[in-house]
Amino acid sequence: MKNYIKVDEWKIIEEGFDPHLNKISESIFSLGNGRMGQRANFEETYTGESLQGNYVAGVYYPDKTRVGWWKNGYPEYFAKVLNAANWIETGIRIGEEILDLNSCTVREFRRVLHMKEGYLERSFVAELSGGKQLKVLSKRFCSIVDDETGAISYSLTPMNFSAGIKITPAVNGDVKNQDSNYDEKFWDEVHKEADDHLGIVLMRTKKTGFEVCTGMKFSISSDRGEPEYQIRPLTGEKYAASEVTVHVSEGETITVCKYAANLSSENYPSEVLVSECKKTLDRIYSKGFDKMLQEQAAAWELKWQESDIVIEGDAAAQQGIRFNIFQLNQTYTGEDARLNIGPKGFTGEKYGGSTYWDTEAYCVPFYLATAPPEVTRNLLIYRYKHLEKAIENAAKLGFKNGAALYPMVTMNGEECHNEWEITFEEIHRNGAIAYAIWNYIRYTGDKDYLAAYGLEVLVGIARFWSQRVNWSEEKHKYVMLGVTGPNEYENNVNNNWYTNTIASWCMDYAVEALEYVKRASPERYEELISKMAFDESEEIPAWRHITANMYFPESAEYGVFLQQDGFLDKEQVLVKDLDQADRPLNQKWSWDRILRSVFIKQADVLQGLYFFEDRYDEATIRRNFDFYEPRTVHESSLSPCVHSILAAKLGDEKRAYDFYLRTSRLDLDDYNNDTEDGLHITSMAGTWMSVVEGFAGMRVKNDALHFRPFLPGQWTSFSFNILFRESILNVKINRDSVVLSNQSKKNVTVYVFGNAFEVAGGKEVFAEYGKYQV
Ligand code: BGC
Q: Which CATH architecture has domain 33-305?
């Protein structure tokens, strides 16, 4: 754990330069706009420890699988988000000396992420040879207004000397991924050109053939009038730059405004990439840095209106939650159904930038409540578009008749995870995809989604489950063998309660959806039935039979659902009995020891109780919580949020808050010592859930919003905005009351502890809840 980020409600601040923290800060201060992302690498040369990262959404490389022993059915490759051409690079040379924070003395270093306006600022004084002091101020952002672009303003002031300075703004495609399996470079050069003030590289990925054109254009100005300078275009392998030589006098400030564009063949035909890139550069160049930044701040203001959480009385908590919301909004904007949310977003290489079940299980609630419905709908359509591949994936594993198994990890619909116990066995991910459809419809009321897209996905998934179970003569029940549940510290188990539960629910929901579409859109139903070759008279009764006779392991003795068959055979010790020196288990214990132990990585049975809470009474949820939580090591960042929400539901405010604290500043304080690999983007959505679903107890039931709030003792109040069915509602939780303020025109009925409050458009309602709270 680190504690070097200064607390501020709207800013992330680092003061002083510590090279050991640099990779962590590169992650924390990352920028993105849903289309491209950029770690907080330095513009000028840096020869110290760094993880370079410029990422272009949707552009990946299929890196050939590397495993010890090949197993039939393994995916051929692991898809990786690519470190793409570097557009920030701006070399600085003072006389013969290269500006490099690794080789000079750095003073007054300050890095600030301005979350309100959406830009990064860095300033420092470099002490160079002979005591020369050079002051640097850089500002940059990835534009959320024009999402293929970014801009940098980079200023230099020699404080006690005058000199000839060479400034070399560049685009550099000679980059690599640190996680490359075979130490290859993934990009080939297709085209490059440099001119005065301009550089362009067009790069093509090996194997996948994605092309990305990265260009830059820049201006030079001085605070002492028009500067005189010489300029020289430069090209090299995968490199285009324009070198400026300028004489800068003591105290004079020279500023380079560098405008960059990243255009990908995903959005343009290859042959126009260069010309479109130049047009884009001209457009932003003529707009200018200040105007672009103003527009950026205005666009962020709107994002904050939709998604901010305001916490009064605890600045560290405020900073933590805003940081999470900021990063989520930087990662996914919902404009393009081909894109999704990688567990590390655009902030590192780990997890390959690929899509996991995290999206459906953890991110969907955030985007549902803070963005228009189309944003989440696009996340669902992403999976719809991958249905064919999911059917192929299942077919490869021996399933038939349109059964669909969605991948655990994917870029394009193909499975690319390559640990057998996950690839073949962590099949519960299929359930989360169906659950997200249900959740989306519950929240938005958009039932038409079923006829348009959802039904086909649900049927494919239900078909898979119906073939994945088998009848046990011994149990006289359907069982599901050889699976890995959400708790990846168990593999190849039989009858994982969560998987059996969600599988059975999926089949029931598919039947319900079929019946609904048949009633609501009979023609479309006929069309779909024939498209899917669906045999109503065979398949529906078969699914019903399975769900009516599914086996769910339970323990009468403990009154709990059993995570899997045989769970009680394990030595029943608790996390509190573990030696701290053994934590985290995944770094200290052999894998077999983990598998044999009782310890749970993340919510498993409890994940099911969270998803399907309405089916279970509070006593059941409590018994399971009290049984499983003490056995859970929470070694996935996705774990604490579910526990926080359940603790809140059970009225255990203290534990709800303690669990929340584990994720709220997970990356800012580098709790798990892994922030340098990138930020935990998907668990950030979980943190949001802990506040809104946990502390505020928000649920959607029967087309209405319900709250069962409490205020953590450390806070004076908290409030947030919710988009719900054309209403924008601000909900403010005080110690004993809720203020519901309807910021839209549409009237809305809101329930607080089960009591209905009508909130007319534009009006505010004050609900004293202290008296109903039990
Ligand atoms: C978790 C998975 C998750 C993945 C990516 C793993 O550590 O166990 O549930 O999907 O990380 O976030």
A: Distorted Sandwich (2.70)
